[in-house]
Design a protein that fits this description.
The complex is a heterodimer of chains A (about 400) and B (about 350).
Chain A: H1 8-11, E1 43-54, E2 61-72, E3 76-80, H2 87-94, E4 102-116, E5 119-124, H3 130-136, E6 141-144, H4 148-151, H5 158-169, H6 175-188, H7 205-216, E7 223-227, H8 235-252, E8 255-260, H9 263-269, E9 272-277, E10 280-286, H10 287-292, H11 297-303, H12 344-348, E11 354-356, E12 361-363, H13 390-398
Parallel strand pairs in A: 3-8, 3-9, 6-7, 7-8
Antiparallel strand pairs in A: 1-2, 1-4, 4-5, 9-10, 10-12, 11-12
Helix pairs in contact in A: 5-6, 6-7, 7-8
Chain B: H1 3-7, E1 9-22, E2 33-46, E3 50-54, H2 61-68, E4 76-81, E5 84-86, H3 94-99, E6 100-103, H4 117-127, H5 135-145, H6 151-155, H7 164-176, E7 182-186, H8 194-211, E8 214-219, H9 222-228, E9 231-236, E10 239-245, H10 248-251, H11 256-264, H12 302-306, E11 312-315, E12 318-320
Parallel strand pairs in B: 3-8, 3-9, 6-7, 7-8
Antiparallel strand pairs in B: 1-2, 1-4, 4-5, 9-10, 10-12, 11-12
Helix pairs in contact in B: 4-5, 4-7, 5-7
The chains are: A alpha/beta (about 400), B alpha/beta (about 350).
Chain lengths: ~400, ~350
């Protein structure tokens, strides 16, 4: 499958009813600022037209539909979505951790390994061999999973789990050095080195998750993927861990992909957020813009699903209905059966992810196309007042 | 508290306590240790009101709900159902179960997966004495109450055919179909998709307002407690540390734990906010003596390590179990309003 960009106009001709509901031909409009070939520069990850199926042939269910993502060095990309929206599947597929029956059906995921004397080393994770992947995993890309108790080996002491990682990736390291490095890593996440002699079940949930983070940072990766790292934890512990994580990021400068269903958490910590719904990206914007001026009705609904901590008591309604079954997606826009602003076009045609002119943000909604014959509701056309992203704010504070 | 309100107390708990004795794992002959899962908790569930209990995991909030449902036997304390004292050590009676119903966190685990919803819904009806002719109509009426229309469609479906939000509505309908007066909801929304959570919260609020149900809403999410509750109780390590009517507790928290909890909630409306100062996380131990929060408390004083604080009145219908308020204007050491002995009149 090619990854050619397709114009907006091309989408409209898709009116053949023979196309299955999991519309495979739906083109995505790619922001033109990204050079397709050649130097990636500051860009560390560039994912184009990425699709993932579960199962084969007739029964295949499309879990991720033509997703485009990109991430710059030392930035934080947030992926927000409900369960079943494909956010975890997407990152497992990008890192090639996805197991059968999950299949990557199209797309590329170019990862920038940095420059050396021969120039830039870029690798497409989708086509990389097991051997290449082995050299990248953990040392360049590492991942922190939601359930630390099932991610850590329950019958091996914590210290030995650090040992295994260092031993297999840093052959030259001596035993004493490995132990010292493990203790140093625990220190980074605020744990005492006597924890190395403990088994995972002897530690609290927060401590286990800190150990997962320390393990992920063991080999100084350029990109750390966080899959709901704090969802199972209490808010106080969550706040502490997020705080530590950001201190570490300041210090080591790794980029992060942060997956969560908690959009309010994400708006605090991410530079850019993409919102997924039923396997597709519906909106991409900087965190503040997304929070202050959402463009997609689903994003708005999601933001209104979190009761506020202060202000007047008003009744909130969330989003009516429930997320669709991926095997029986509605026609047209996936969100239209639950959307209060849906109009005729929404039920028939699937909207592409289009960049809103001059704003650097994209949305997949027929309300925002130029030739839409319905007015954009006030709540979806607000203007964002603050533009600074968390890392920019941090810079301002430190300077 | 007016007379009218006192009479509509559906379920009252006084000094409810549950201790578990545990051995250190792996040490068979070590001395047993007492874990005070719930210590001296008193509350009143009033018809037409939602009482929210907020706490992190391990704070004893679920044990409290299970004691109120009489699934867990309290170590000590009293329960009063509609003015009648309950013998807490005896077995739960059918009559008690018909008045007090519990809705659990995980709707997928609380439905029998091999039976249709009709089975799951008819069973409690038949157990509680509905006739076979009437039961289906009552089940349908219960489904309508939780906005599942048309009910016949849901009665025919299996648990796996429904979404989490729909299943949680069915489990609320199952609790409601025998017309209880008290609904205990233990984290009813935490397993649900974000977009359907508010629907379930609004449903609970509606049941409370329209049907005068007394609801106990247990949660770790203080924002949702603020949204739904008429009064809020914050628990820490088995104890009530702060409680207030209305949302005073969220708007003006007084206990250092409540302050920490609120500061930890993500709040995108305040982009300039920094991470709150937190206690040393390595010390999430619970003090054996004095205030249980003292090892983590930023305002800890010598007295806190020695003496357990009582609940001080810090505002109207607002109490806080913290020595910081010992010299407060209303410097009277008081029992919590709900801890008042029967017949005593309000002093606030």
């Amino acid at each position: 499958m090619t990854t050619e960009s397709v114009g907006v106009g091309d989408v409209v001709k898709r009116d053949d009813t023979t196309t299955p509901p999991t519309n495979r031909t739906s083109p995505q409009v790619v922001a033109s600022t990204i050079p397709k070939e050649g130097a990636m520069g500051e860009r560390i990850l560039d994912v184009r037209d990425f699709s993932v199926d579960y199962g084969w042939g007739e029964n295949a269910v499309r879990a991720v539909e033509s997703v485009d993502l990109h991430l710059d060095r030392s930035k934080v990309l947030g992926i927000a979505g409900e369960s079943g929206s494909g956010k975890s599947t997407l990152v497992y597929a990008i890192t090639r951790l996805l197991r059968a029956p999950g299949v990557i059906t199209s797309g590329e995921a170019r990862f920038n390994l940095g420059s050396n004397d021969d120039g830039e080393r870029v690798i497409d994770l989708v086509t990389a061999s097991e051997r290449e992947l082995r050299s990248i995993r953990w040392s360049s890309i590492s991942i922190v999973l939601q359930s630390a108790l099932s991610a850590l080996n329950p019958v091996v002491r914590v210290g030995a789990q650090f040992e295994q990682v260092l031993k297999s990736h840093r052959r030259a390291m001596s035993k004493v050095d490995r132990r010292a490095r493990a203790a140093e890593l625990l220190g980074l996440v605020g744990l005492n080195s006597d924890r190395l002699d403990r088994y995972p079940h002897e530690l609290s949930g927060g401590q286990r998750q800190r150990i997962m983070i320390a393990l992920a940072l063991a080999l100084d990766p350029q990109l750390v993927i966080m899959d709901e790292p704090t969802t199972a934890l209490d808010v106080v512990t969550q706040r502490e861990i997020i705080g530590e994580l950001f201190e570490l990021r300041e210090r080591f400068g790794f980029a992060m992909i942060f997956i969560t269903h908690d959009l309010s958490l994400l708006t605090e910590l991410a530079d850019e957020i993409v919102v997924m719904y039923a396997g597709a990206l519906v909106e991409r914007a900087s965190a503040r813009e997304l929070y202050e001026a959402p463009r997609h009705p689903y994003t708005l609904g999601l933001l209104n699903s979190f009761p506020p901590m202060h202000g007047e008591h008003t009744e909130l309604f969330g989003i009516p209905g429930s997320p669709p079954d991926l095997a029986h997606l509605p026609t047209g826009c996936r969100f239209h059966p639950r959307c209060p602003y849906a109009w005729a076009r929404c039920a028939n045609e699937s909207p592409p992810l289009i960049e809103i002119e001059g704003s650097g943000r994209s949305v997949s909604c027929w309300l925002h196309v130029a030739d839409a014959n319905v007015a954009v509701p006030v709540e979806l056309s607000r203007v964002s007042t603050s533009k600074a992203s968390p890392s920019e704010r941090a810079k301002e504070v430190s300077s | 508290m007016t007379d009218e309100m006192t009479t509509s107390v559906q379920l009252g708990a006084r000094h409810l306590t549950r201790h578990f004795s545990v051995r250190t794992p792996g040490r068979l002959f070590a001395a047993k240790r007492i874990v005070r899962a719930v210590d001296d908790v008193s509350l009143d569930l009033v018809g037409g009101e939602v009482v929210a209990v907020v706490g992190e995991s391990g704070s004893g909030k679920s044990v409290l709900a299970r004691m109120l449902a009489r699934i867990v036997t309290p170590t000590s304390g009293d329960l009063v159902l509609q003015g009648k004292p309950i013998a807490i050590k005896s077995k739960r009676t059918l009559d008690y179960a018909s008045q007090v119903q519990l809705v659990l966190q995980d709707p997928f685990a609380s439905m029998n997966p091999v039976h249709r919803m009709s089975h799951n819904l008819l069973r409690p009806l038949l157990i509680h004495g509905a006739s076979k002719q009437d039961a289906p109509a009552m089940a349908e009426a219960a489904l309508r109450r939780v906005s599942l229309e048309p009910p016949s469609r849901y009665l025919e479906s299996y648990p796996h055919e429904l979404s989490g939000g729909q299943l949680q509505r069915v489990s609320i309908a199952r609790a409601l179909c025998i017309e209880p007066k008290v609904l205990l909801a233990d984290e009813p929304i935490s397993m649900l998709d974000v977009s359907v959570r508010l629907g379930v919260l609004n449903l609970l609020r509606g049941l409370c307002d329209n049907d005068r149900l007394a609801i106990l809403y247990i949660t770790h999410d203080i924002a949702s407690a603020r949204y739904i509750a008429d009064s809020i109780i914050v628990m820490y390590a088995g104890e009530v540390v702060e409680q207030s009517r209305g949302t005073t507790l969220v708007d003006e928290p007084t206990h250092p734990y409540t302050q920490l909890l609120i500061a930890s909630v993500p709040d995108p409306s305040d982009p300039t906010r920094d991470t709150p100062p937190t206690g040393e996380h390595a010390q999430i131990e619970i003090a054996e003596k004095g205030c249980r929060f003292s090892p983590r408390c930023p305002h800890v004083m010598d007295r806190c390590r020695e003496e357990e604080p009582p609940a001080f009145i810090v505002g109207e219908n607002h109490t806080s179990k913290c020595w910081l308020y010992a010299d407060h204007d209303a410097a009277v050491e008081v029992a919590l309003p709900t801890r008042r002995k029967e017949g005593e009149t309000a002093t606030t």
